[in-house]
Amino acid sequence: MSDGADVSDEVVAPTTPQTTRYSTSWLISLAVPGMLTNAAQPIAELSIVVMLSHTGSNPTVVVAAYALATSTVSFCANVFNFLLSVTMSEVGRAVGGKRWNELGRAIRVALTTALVAAAVCVGMVMLCKEQIYWLFSAVPAVRAEADVYIVLRVAAVPLLFVGRVASSVLVGFQRIRLVAAITTLQACACATGAWVALRRCDAGLQGTGYAYLAAITAGCCALLTAMTTLPPATTAHRIRWYRDTTGTHSIPSPSLLAAARSYLSQSGNMMVRSLMLQGAVFALYVVASRENGTTALTAHQVIAQLWGLTSYVCDGFADVGTMLASKLIGEGRPEAVRRLSRRLLAMGEVVAGIVVIVLVVGEEPVQRLFTRDPAVSRLLQQNWVLLVAMQPINAAVFITDGVLIAFGAPAFRFIRNLMLVGVCCLFAPSMVVAVEVYHTLLALWVAKNILTTWRCACALWFIELRPVAQPRDSLRCDGADATEKSSLLSSEPVN
Q1: Where on the phi/psi map is residue 20: left (φ > 0), alpha (ψ -120 to 50), or beta?
Q2: DSSP 8-state class, residue 437
Q3: Do 482 and 406 meet the contact criterion of CB atoms below 8 Å apart?
Q4: pLDDT tens figures, 220-253
Q5: How far apart are CA 33 and CA 31, in angstroms?
Q6: Could you give the CA distance from residue 137 to residue 288 in angstroms, rounded to a whole number?
Q7: CB 3.0 to 4.6 Å from 334: which of 5, 168, 447, 468, for a disulfide?
């Protein structure tokens, strides 16, 4: 893939379905930019937790305040994750058809939606801040640490949302490596700023909040500048997204109202999925704090960071799954999708195996890295076996999520339904049992992992066993358009 103009990135279709064999090295090369994009900020957050764990006279309280603020803002922000997936789909469709007016309107609708969603998110957090403290049963020391930090985190939400839209547009423009570079630099700035605030300025948690806000601001400005100045990689035609284009390049396109209606209608299913998933994650934080106190909330934050270790690599494989599977679905070749899914799953399980070895061999050093509090260490030890055992299932969930999205509208409905059933019928009852019977952090994580196992089983059923009965044209609408957004697809001979 090149960032220059007039470059077309496509997979060379094999002559027969049986010949579709993508090399492991090529799949890894496709996944690397996605790995960087997906892993950069989580790794920065992980490093901040490590730094906070060794800062001040009472790091347990500081990490608990950090967990309270980040889990609250992340819950509200991640409900609107459709700003990424739907925007990429809309932009990819317009770029592929060279419908520049439609592209500009899609971008304007996405940016407007992002600002409205950000206003809702900021308003909810600021108006409900005292209720959030009550919900977490936050002790005065935790409240004092979190009071300014949560304001700084929520102040970054509008910039974060606009940056998400801009990054999605750039991916639709086939500028994935540029997005990966900007995202990585933003995360490095966030972690470096936190180190300066904690180690050089002794500014505490509040200083890390200012560093985070500055890094998000810089990243948003860079992404917006790139979106405005760079054309799609497949054309030299510069996009003036802020107004309609006239002339020979203009093709009749839906009105702005119709574009908004299309965008919001596609967002519904994914928003329900995000609401269920993020609600489950947030509930874990709340119950851990209310039932087990500040020490448990700190331990829970550490476990949550380690729980998603495989995602740093497997999310890149998931992106590849979305891109390649969508093309194969558009060609009406579900068996090839299944073979691709199995290859990606095998690669993900190798990653999970490496993580398992690291967690088993390095149990004590890893725990010392995150805490010096004996009480927190005891809680980590009690949950360590479950944390290790879930890594292979986590890897499978992260990858199958990406392959599922390639199936388009039928998969969006399926994802919505499986999350509704999983949260309401499995996770919620398990949480009740954990609270009423066991009263331990381990029981809460068992509930979380029951939901994860359910997601994994349902995704594998959909990909491997469910008949693909959708008409070919429908598949192309939902699947092939997703391929048009891919910035990673480059010519690769099949074996």
Answers
A1: beta
A2: I
A3: yes
A4: 999 999 988 887 766 666 666 555 554 444 444 4
A5: 6
A6: 10
A7: 468
